[in-house]
Design brief:
The chain has helices at residues 14-27, 41-48, 74-87, 103-108, 122-140; strands at residues 2-8, 32-38, 51-52, 55-56, 61-71, 91-95, 111-114. By secondary structure, it is α/β, with parallel strands linked by helices. The protein has a single domain (2-140), classed as SPOUT methyltransferase, trefoil knot domain (Alpha/beta knot). The strands form two sheets. It has a five-stranded parallel sheet with strand order 2-1-6-5-7. Strands 3-4 form a two-stranded antiparallel ribbon. Strand 1 (2-8), helix 1 and strand 2 form a beta-alpha-beta unit.
């Protein structure tokens, strides 16, 4: 399975990048994963359409993080990843900038996910997402990281 976590904008805090890198490293035990900063939403949408600098690349299934999206438990997220492994389409989890995503991006997304009803800074949301993806893989692989409570 291929997963990309993309965020719009530069990372301001080194601690955020360190935590992101740590969870990406952990996820890499279970899936091919990459984190990437993007300049803007247009760059994100070009990834999902398979267009990048004039060359054709693999199409990604876009999963947006947005407070208006569907909420998942850790177990439900694990089940989603398990179903998507069968489809073999790379997943692109996207975290917007401080202004969120446009309606166009929301329409193009295959799924819109919320990390909860509380508002999180977008950099912190990236770390929470990466940790939850790692947790989902540990659930699927029956690793004791997730105790279920």
């Amino acid at each position: 399975m291929k997963i990309k976590i993309a965020w719009i904008g530069k990372t301001k805090e080194a601690a955020i990048q360190n935590l992101t890198d740590e969870y990406l490293k952990r996820i890499s035990r279970y899936a091919e994963v990459k984190g990437t900063a993007l300049k803007d939403e247009a760059s994100l949408l070009s990834l999902t359409s398979g267009e990048r600098r004039g060359a054709q690349t693999a199409r990604w299934k876009l999963v947006l993080l947005d407070s208006r999206g569907r909420q998942f438990s850790s177990e439900e997220l694990a089940a989603l990843l398990e179903r998507e492994q069968v489809n073999a389409i790379p997943l692109l989890f996207a975290i917007g900038g401080s202004d969120g995503f446009s309606e166009r991006a929301r329409r193009e997304a295959s799924l819109v996910v919320s990390l909860g009803r509380m508002t999180l800074p977008h950099e912190l949301a990236r770390v929470v997402l990466a940790e939850q993806l790692y947790r989902a893989f540990t659930i699927l692989n029956k690793h004791p990281y997730h105790l279920g409570h």
